[in-house]
Amino acid sequence: MNVATDDLNQIVDNFSVYGVPFPFGRRGSVGTLENWAPELSVDIEALDSDHKAFFELAAVLQDARAAGPGENDLVVRSAIDLLEDYVVGHFLREERAMESAGYPDFEAHRLQHQVFRDKVAAIAKAYRNGDLTAPAPLPDIVTDWLYAHIAKDDHAYRPCVQASHVDPAPLALMVLEAEGDDDTLL
After folding, report:
1. What is the mean pLDDT of residues 8-17?
2. Is 129 domain-assigned?
3. Which residues contact 177 (CB under 8 A, 6 or more apart)?
4. How far apart, in whole angstroms, are the C-alpha atoms of residue 167 and residue 132?
């Protein structure tokens, strides 16, 4: 293994959700991913659509992983690029809504987003630096983190954040808007 792979493995091994070690390997190398479920809804169309898109991207990465490292490079590269954009756009949308609503746990929620952003960025960087195995854990990282995050953190803001607080712009426009904001970009 090269240094980048060792560093990435260290990051993945130390990744936890809410202080609980991340459950890698519980499904096997090509297991069934968590899917969007109605109980995950935050009852705001734009946010639910964003969340569903994350699950769809994880499924694309899962299919590419099944083919083996380097077999679907264009698909993997495109999915990673989209994932990074989705992270930027969705988190901007959600953070603005929480801030607009005066959500009291906004800073803690934003910190959870930053941790996830950093994990995705580390994996993307390792992949772009030639580690074709780097994206292998991404489907599980995305679905496990997202499922836990929505169920706990996003549901916590439901009494405070209403649809009127949420920018309904397409995610691509949210990404473009974020490009000038250094605090939001990966």
Report:
1. 43
2. yes
3. 92, 169
4. 36
CATH number of 75's domain: 1.20.120.50
- Domain ranges, residue 128: 3-7+51-178
pTM of the model: 0.77
Residue at token pair 């694309």: 60
Overall average pLDDT of the 20-39 stretch: 51
Residue 178 banded pLDDT, cuts 50, 70, 90 = confident
Domain count, the chain: 1
114-141: pLDDT as tens digits: 999 999 999 999 999 999 999 999 999 9
Q: CA-to-CA distance for 7 and 4, rounded, in angstroms? A: 5
